[in-house]
Amino acid sequence: MKTLRLILGDQLNQKHSWFTNVDESVIYIMAEMRQETDYVKHHIQKVVGFFMAMRSFKEDLTEKGHRFKYLTIGNPENPQDLKKIITKYISETKAEKLEYQLPDEYRLDQQLQSICEDLSIETEAFDTEHFYTTRNELKDFYKGNKQMVMESFYRMMRKKHNIMVNKDQPEGGKWNFDQSNRKKWKGEPEIPHDRGFRKEVSPILQELEKAGVETFGNIEPESFNWPVSREDCQSVLRYFCKELLVHFGDYQDAMHDHEKYLFHSRLSFAMNTKILSPQEVIDKVLEHFYEHKEEIDISQVEGFIRQILGWREYMRGIYWKEMPKYAQMNKLENKNKLPDFFWTGKTKMNCLKHAIGQSLDTAYAHHIQRLMVIGNYALLTQIHPDEVDKWYLGVYIDAIEWVEITNTRGMSQFADGGIVATKPYVSSANYINKMSNYCGSCSYSHTKKTGENACPFNALYWNFLNEKRTFFQDNHRMNMMMSLLEKKDEKELNELTERAQAIIANPDTF
Ligand code: FAD
Ligand code: SF4
Fold this sequence. Notes:
This protein is of the alpha/beta class. The protein folds into 3 domains: 3-126, 3-Layer(aba) Sandwich (Rossmann fold); 137-310, Serine Threonine Protein Phosphatase 5, Tetratricopeptide repeat (Alpha Horseshoe); 328-509, DNA Cyclobutane Dipyrimidine Photolyase, subunit A, domain 3 (Orthogonal Bundle). 47% of the residues lie in helices and 6% in strands. The protein has helices spanning 34-38, 44-63, 82-93, 106-118, 137-141, 150-160, 202-211, 230-248, 268-272, 278-291, 298-322, 341-344, 350-362, 367-380, 385-395, 401-412, 429-435, 456-467, 469-472, 479-487, 490-505, and strands at residues 3-6, 26-31, 42-43, 68-71, 97-101, 122-126, 165-166, 169-170, 215-216. Helix 4 links the parallel strand 5 (97-101) and strand 6 (122-126). The chain is globular and about 80 Å long. The N and C termini lie far apart (65 Å). The mean pLDDT is 96. Iron/sulfur cluster (SF4) binds next to helix 13, helix 17 and helix 18. Flavin-adenine dinucleotide binds next to helix 9, helix 11, helix 14 and helix 16.
């Protein structure tokens, strides 16, 4: 019996049990599709990264003897649509069974279920063998609980997978070293720079242009710098363990205008395409840590493991628990449009200029830039979460809806009313100045609240609390901020409101 096995662009797991043996009766199908390039406008590096990674995956497995049918974006026989591609190959190969791995996006999950219902041949879905958790594990874990605090899930995961745990107790005496992850980076310690991959991508750029795929953002055709093969992804992981892990936790929240990546791993693309598994990453990090225990503090390692074993698995669980209604949530009733400078990086606000400019140049910004600069601004200016989601889903190379929407609509925009975050992540200039050197060379003064050169974040912050006060009156985590707001005299509050409203009305002039 001939079987077709579908592999989607984010299912590049070479370690999957499908590939343990070569089976002559199996044909793998993969396709670069307009359906996937066009559901939102993407950064050019994201499209190039995914297609290059898919091609590299196919090459590696073809070398091992597996049979593939692969449609490139420019192939005139490519129907560019998942249903048409599946039916085309079923009829061409006379396959009697279709097998697929469970998609991680709700959209594709629905589409595949409906395609399968219409097919006359047998179909079967398989696990991707990537995550630590199943789709519904988080839902079962929090059953009956109103609050789904990440920390309790994380501790359960540490114990269940026996990661940095001795007899159910955390190694180092604490489950969480978050408090020590808050240093500002001031030029030291030195960040060892890697050369990167510097790949020539002109041919694929020409293919995309010929096919008419519309993208945004920048790319250097002779030096594409994202790892797309399994070998390259493994080298990024080795580099992280050897050079960056030692300071990861300390500078996790730091930002700097000359250092885009600081001590961050840049492994999200490798993991989200499933080229590397979270277990492989955590195992390597722990192996390195235990071999170099005298040089690396446990807080650096725990900080990293928490992101992957905790936050990453947690977000996936929340996604499957809350979709599809999650994608419609707008609890704070925000309505504004995204300013133009999100597409150009052209603004006088230095923090945004750097965080957005870097996103457009590299398809990457690290967590605190996404959360406390760009996301903070979007929330304070009350932009509609649909607009914010679309931008984040398009711009970052690691953006796949299950992890993008939970972070954007949930953690960053509080549009879910507190499912993911217990309070909105908003701040005035104070926080940005504390964690970065952006304010030092900004046109605005981070200490001023009103007046022409006052930092826009300051007025926006108080205006946001004031306008949204009814949403926060029962949130005890907001008590301190709300009581500070209550203490403001009317004149000051009026001035702050006036300035905030001027910014919101004309964001591109600030
Ligand atoms: P590191 O800082 O080195 O962290 C290591 C790994 O931990 C990451 O590779 C990632 O897999 C995981 N991780 C860290 N934080 C989170 C988190 N909050 N949720 C899930 N996993 C996490 N991450 C994505 O993978 N895709 C997205 O589309 C995405 N969108 C985001 C949008 C917003 C508004 C925010 C605030 C965060 C978003 N994140 C997203 C989470 C995080 O910012 C990125 O995972 C991280 O910046 C990727 O860079 P890195 O690999 O260098 O991460
Ligand atoms: Fe950003 Fe305000 Fe600091 Fe300028 S002063 S960098 S706008 S926080």
